[in-house]
Amino acid sequence: MTFPASQIAFLINGKVEGDPNVAVNSFGKIEEAREGQLSFLANLKYEDYLYSTGASVIILNENYELKQPVSATLIRVPDAYSAFATLLTKYQEIMQQQLQGVQEPAYIAKSATYGEQVFIGAFAYLGENVRIGNNTKIYPNAYIGNNVTIGDNCVIHPGVKIYHDCQIGNHVSIHAGTVVGSDGFGFAPQADGSFKKVPQIGNVVIHDYVEIGANATIDRATIGSTVIKSGAKLDNLIQIAHNVEVGNSTVIAAQAGVSGSTKIGNGVMIGGQAGIVGHIQLGDGAKVNAQSGVSKSIEAGKAVTGSPAHDYTAALRSQALSRNLPMLEKRIKELEILIRQLLAENV
Fold this sequence. Notes:
Layout: E1 3-4, H1 5-11, E2 15-17, E3 23-24, E4 26-27, E5 37-41, E6 57-61, E7 73-77, H2 80-97, E8 101-102, E9 107-108, E10 113-114, E11 119-120, E12 125-126, E13 131-132, E14 137-138, E15 143-144, E16 149-150, E17 155-156, E18 161-162, E19 167-168, E20 173-174, E21 179-182, E22 187-189, E23 195-197, E24 203-206, E25 211-212, E26 217-219, E27 225-228, E28 233-234, E29 239-240, E30 245-246, E31 251-252, E32 257-258, E33 263-264, E34 269-270, E35 275-276, E36 281-282, E37 287-288, E38 293-294, E39 303-305, E40 310-311, H3 312-323, H4 325-345
Parallel strand pairs: 4-5, 5-6, 6-7, 8-11, 9-12, 10-13, 11-14, 12-15, 13-16, 14-17, 15-18, 16-19, 17-20, 18-21, 19-24, 20-25, 21-26, 24-27, 25-28, 26-29, 27-30, 28-31, 29-32, 30-33, 31-34, 32-35, 33-36, 34-37, 35-38, 37-39
Antiparallel strand pairs: 1-3, 2-7, 22-23, 39-40
């Protein structure tokens, strides 16, 4: 598909500088883009490429002052990165709208229902009493268990497994290989040293506008629900244990793990490979640095780092002091020599 600069500017509320009729049909990085492609400049680290790129159209911050003429048509916006993200979203929506219908072979239980403009890919499985909303895309090899509900405008990518009774809201995207609703890790120690499995009879509830990366696992609750609230973003390879609650607009980076029954507030940021123990609370706006081990609750707005995790600013001071330990040791030894000399002179 081909779009003129004027139409792109309209979609992102931008102002055209240059030829409004120049057309593009694909996207490209500013350092690699060629004629007929659209790119953007948000990071000044790539500023030099603005003047050498082959891109036909470039999205640019409205306050950026050109240092020399450019050959490309510019679209000025308040925030180039955000505008480019908006444009990619609209493009993706257009492409997904072209996917409709049910491919064969696919298994759809007689009691399952789905809305309008739905796509169900080959080898997908929809169990009993499944409910799929309008404009939702179920890609090949996805498994949707009995009594699962999925709302409107969702994308369930290839190989996703959603176990029975789970509930997915609207505008949710779940990437390939992710498992939603597998059993929580519940085992009761026995007198003979063995472990007895505790049945996990709850479910997982995912609210609207959530995105979950590839190969993540979200365990069903023992009783009740494991909950991912609206706007939360989970990266690839994340483990969310049973009965965890993840708050609105919280982001969790790859390879992080959250143990059972922990409550994570709204707007929390958790770095990659962080580990969080069970039965604690992370307050709204808390920040957990990458590779931190969180062993106790965190107050709202507080940033922590390290293992065990502690106050971020204090941790930086400790790191600065530790780097100076060799120099401090040398000074102490010099002071000891000086003291011995002074004592010898006074004898």
